[in-house]
Amino acid sequence: MLEKRKMLNKIALLILVISIISVCLLISYDSSTSFSCESDFSIVQNINNENVHSEGIISLEMTKNNIFISIDGLLTYNDNKYIISRKLKADYKRASTGLHWYKLSKIKQFKDESDNLNENIANDLLFGTRSEDKITTDKIVEDKIIYLNKLNNNLLLIGNHTFPQYGCRRQ
């Protein structure tokens, strides 16, 4: 009887230890692989006679392999005024070791009816791709590279391949 009781105590202790370890791993995995933020943004660029001024709100949710970006605002490009309201969902993976550049794949863009911004201008702002004529409606089919840099697990810098353009504080 004493042996049976000792065995039951050992089994109960083992189950308790496994449960505690499982909960700790789940909390650790969830907190290190998910990030959600929202922030106001303002961008002013004047590069090679291209004048861009944009203001709005950007929000972002990311897990270990997926990213969801929502951007809403007003944009002036060479004195033409636009509304931008779109969402982007994609898979991402590190493009090069040691740097903060990531390659996006399986990109799905959702554009609100009010969004009247040309695709090439929007892609150039987020991904930094260049095309000869940004005013055409031809879609850019180059690889999409994005800059993502998490600082102290509290702030995320987001940008194109040239430099960070947005800062987003964890919610």
Give a nutshell description of this structure.
The chain has two helices and eight strands, in the order αβββββαβββ.
Write a concise keyword list for the protein shown above:
eight-stranded antiparallel β-sheet, elongated, alpha+beta, 171 residues, 49% strand, 2 helices
What number is the mean pLDDT?
A: 78
Counting DSSP H or I runs of 4 or more residues, the number of helices is: 2
Low-pLDDT runs: 130-141
Oligomeric category: single chain
Q: How would you describe what is shown here?
A:
The protein has 171 residues and is an alpha+beta fold. The chain folds into two domains: 1-33; 35-169, no CATH class. It has helices spanning 2-33, 119-127; strands spanning 35-47, 50-62, 66-77, 80-94, 101-111, 144-151, 155-159, 164-169. It has an eight-stranded antiparallel sheet. The protein is elongated.
Write the layout of secondary structure elements.
Blueprint: H1 2-33, E1 35-47, E2 50-62, E3 66-77, E4 80-94, E5 101-111, H2 119-127, E6 144-151, E7 155-159, E8 164-169
Antiparallel strand pairs: 1-2, 2-3, 3-4, 4-5, 5-6, 6-7, 7-8
